[in-house]
Amino acid sequence: MATVTSTNIFSVFLPNQLGNSRRCFFKPSTIPIIKRKFVSKIRASSTTFVETKPTETIVVEKEGSVNKNILACPICFEQVTWIGDPCLSLDSATGSCLQCNTCKKTYSGVQSHFDLTAASGAKDYGESMPPATEFFRIPFISFLYERGWRQNFVWGGFPGPEKEFELMKDYLKPVLGGNIIDASCGSGMFSRIFAKSGLFSLVVALDYSENMLQQCYEFVKKEENFPKENYMLVRADISRLPFASSSVDAVHAGAAIHCWPSPSTAVAEISRVLRPGGVFVATTYILDGPFNFIPFLRPLRQNMMQISGSYAFLSEGELKDLCRACGLVGFTCIRNRRFVMFTARKPN
Ligand SMILES: C[S@@+](CC[C@H](N)C(=O)[O-])C[C@H]1O[C@@H](n2cnc3c(N)ncnc32)[C@H](O)[C@@H]1O
C-alpha cells in the first residue's frame, strides 16, 4: 500500500459545473491507495469559471488488479508478449523486445522508446504523414517545443500545464489509480506531471515524433527521483493505437486533436481502447466568437485542412458531435477564450 500526502498551493481555473465534492472514494482494495491533499487558490477568468478556495483531498482506493498489460500489436490489435523480462520502465527499453502473439511481428525498444507504428522495422519503405504531423518530427521544432513554443499557447487562453492538470484532475477522478495514455504527448510535459503526481498506476507517453520522444527522454533523465517504473515512451500513430481494446482507463490529448490527420479516426481509436467508463480528456482551441464573422470560414477551413493537415474547430458543438459519433458519452467542456478543455467517456 502506498500513501502519499502533499500540500500544494496553486492558482488555477476551475469549472463551475464541478460542484463542491472534492472527494472520490472507491472500495477498499489490495492495491495502491494514493492520498493527495491540495489547497487550491482559484482565480476567476470568465463566466465559465468560478472563484472558490477549496481544500481538496483526493483519496484513491482502487479495487482489483491494475491493468498494465495493455500493449497490443498495431497491425492486428492482439496482445503482445515481452521477449525476456517485461520492461515497464523507461530505463530498460533498449534491448527489450515485444512479440505479437498472433502475427508474430516483433517490436524492439531503442534508447528512448518503443516503436509501435505499423511500419516499424521496415527498411526500404518510407511514407510521410500530413504536414501537421511531419512538422513535429523536425528535430529543431521538437527541441524548441518546451523551450518557449508551448508557453506561447497562453495567448490563446491555455492556462499552462500545471493549471491544465489541476483542471483535468476533476475529470479524471473516476479513473485515478488506473493507467493513462498521454496521446500525442509532444516532449512529454503532461506525462511527466502524471507520473510525478503518483495518481496513476501506469503512464504511457505516446507520440508519432521520435524526436519529441527523444526530448522527453532527455527531460526525464535530468529529473531527480523521477518515478521511472511504470512509465513508458511509445512511438505510435494516433489512428492506429497499440493497445488492446477496452484496456485503457484514461486518455489525455493536450493541444493535439487539431494536429491529427483525421480527428474522427483518432477519436474512434481512443474509444476502442478505452474500457467501459474510461475517460477521454483533451484540449484544443475553438475559432468561434469574432471568427464567426469571417466570410466563407468553413470552405476556408477545408482548404487549410488540405494544405496543412490540421483541423480548426469552429464550435464546442463540433467537438461534442465528434465524441458522440465515435461512441463517447457525457461530453462536457470548459472554455477560456479560444482554449477549450473537454471530456467524454466510454459508456458503461
Ligand atoms: C502541439 S503538440 C502537443 C504536445 C503536448 N500534448 C502539449 O499539450 O503541449 C501536437 C503533437 O501531436 C503529435 N501528432 C501529430 N500527428 C500525430 C499522429 N498522427 N499520431 C500521434 N501523434 C501525432 C505531434 O508529434 C506533436 O507532438
Automatic annotation (TrEMBL):
Sequence ranges assigned to domain Methyltransferase type in this UniProt record: 182-281
InterPro entries tied to this protein: Methyltransf_11 (IPR013216), SAM-dependent_MTases_sf (IPR029063)
Extent of the signal sequence: none
Pfam families recorded: Methyltransf_11 (PF08241)
Descriptive protein name: Methyltransferase type 11 domain-containing protein
